[in-house]
Amino acid sequence: MSEHPSRARWSALAVVCAGMLMVILDGSITTVALPAIQDDLRIGPAGLAWVVDAYVIAFGGLLLLAGRLGDLLGRRRIYLAGIAAFTAASVLCGLATGPATLISARFLQGVGGAMASAVGLGMVVGLFPDPADRAKAFGVVGFTGSAGASLGQVLGGVLTEGLGWHWIFFINLPIGAAALLAGLRLLPRDAGGGAGGGVDVPGAALVTGGLMLGVYSIVEGGPHGWTSAGTLGPAAAALALLAAFVLRQARAATPLLPLRVLARRTTALANLVQVLLLGALFGFQVLAALYLQNVQHYGALDTGLAMLPAALAIGAVSLLVAARAIGRFGERRTLLLGLALLTVGLALLVRLPAGRFDYVADLLPTMLLGAGFGLAATALTALGMADARPEDAGLLSGVLNTTQQVGAALGVAVLTALAGGSGDAVDGFHLAFGVGAALLLAAFLLATALPARTAPVPAAAESAVPVPN
Question: Which of 45, 61, 191, 406 has the most CB atoms lying inside 10 A of its own CB?
Fold first, then answer.
């Protein structure tokens, strides 16, 4: 590249974050538009659920495979292919005139999103070998996530009410095209480790099928019951496939997921903490929106604006504070502080009123304490990728993204079921928020077993995060 190597790295990070922004934006923006989609396409409740579930199943099921393929074939290649697929599928979603087309296109979106997301963190690790710069880069990644979530909540309401639900998908076209063109120019080429030893095709089929069935059983468990045949059957099949996958990896000459990766203490604990953290936080996001709309009768746009302070607080802390905190205190202490703030925030919601509601007193403190996610997510990402070797970075990125999706799907399914399973609607919300706080407390206790610092971070971590050019 013609740029200074340091500037080239931050430019490449901007490209990676643009793709992440598009994928994250799509998740929050679609949720806001679901009622309009249902009315326009005359989709029943079960079909409407599949508009979300088709994406989640493809995305969650393919992350591990996509991450490993990035290690073998080159992360740049997999990332750009994912962005192209996601963008094309978004256009198909926007052009859909019936449920079948929309649901099929959403599945393809999930495939593209998995390919781009699975290798994203691995590319960041490769771009920033220095721990201080890597901490800053992960802070930028965290800011991108919160920006996508907050922008999606507000933009979804604006586009749906102003132009129609089709435009929530068409908005991905300029973002995807820009990310693809910039990526071709700015992302460094990497050959990958090569597939000379052969790709573990049986292992890939087992883990992809197992993860897809597992995610399916989770998303179906809430509406259909956790003990129903439609839930227990896929869950049992998922466990059988995943068990067969583990046996296959222990014996395969070129395993898709070398078991030594999961045997690393820091990697295993970081992913367990992430399941609990994302389960609580994604559940909170959905429950808070449902409480505002169903109990306090907020509109879609008002709900997005009410949730905005949390996203802004998370973004500011991710970008300006997280790297400095990690540099001064280490990843574990930063993670513990973030989890403590989040636990208090969710615990406060067990007192939400059924009647007269004061946003500033009743909900805003929790939104501001959500800044803890900016600390926790950045530190957890650093811990989850701390043991990444060059040949495994894409795989660890895929593992971290997979546990994120499993945790999010499980949290939303369980907590929304708890919120709706009580005779009194507000009592159900109180129970669900209490369970969410308990999940965060369990994550806090698990996190105390993590190493204090995964690598020495020089004092340069105290400097401001460079702005990508």
Answer: 61
Q: Which tens digit of pLDDT belongs to each residue from 79-127? A: 899 999 999 999 999 998 888 899 899 999 989 988 888 787 778 877 8
The 3-class secondary structure across the chain, one letter per residue, is CCCCHHHHHHHHHHHHHHHHHHHHHHHHHHHHHHHHHHHHHCCCHHHHHHHHHHHHHHHHHHHHHHHHHHHHHCHHHHHHHHHHHHHHHHHHHHHCCCHHHHHHHHHHHHHHHHHHHHHHHHHHHHHCCCHHHHHHHHHHHHHHHHHHHHHHHHHHHHHHHHCCCCHHHHCHHHHHHHHHHHHHHHCCCCCCCCCCCCCCHHHHHHHHHHHHHHHHHHHHHHHHCCCCHHHHHHHHHHHHHHHHHHHHHHHCCCCCCCHHHHCCHHHHHHHHHHHHHHHHHHHHHHHHHHHHHHHCCCCHHHHHHHHHHHHHHHHHHHHHCHHHHHHHHCHHHHHHHHHHHHHHHHHHHHHCCCCCCCHHHHCHHHHHHCCHHHHHHHHHHHHHCCCCCCCCHHHHHHHHHHHHHHHHHHHHHHHHHHHHCCCCHHHHHHHHHHHHHHHHHHHHHHHCCCCCCCCCCCHHHHCCCCCCC
455: confidence class by pLDDT, cuts 50, 70, 90: very low
For 172-229, the pLDDT digits (tens) are 899 889 889 988 888 887 766 555 555 677 877 887 788 778 777 876 766 667 778 8
How do the domains of the chain map onto residue ranges?
A: 5-199+256-461, 200-255
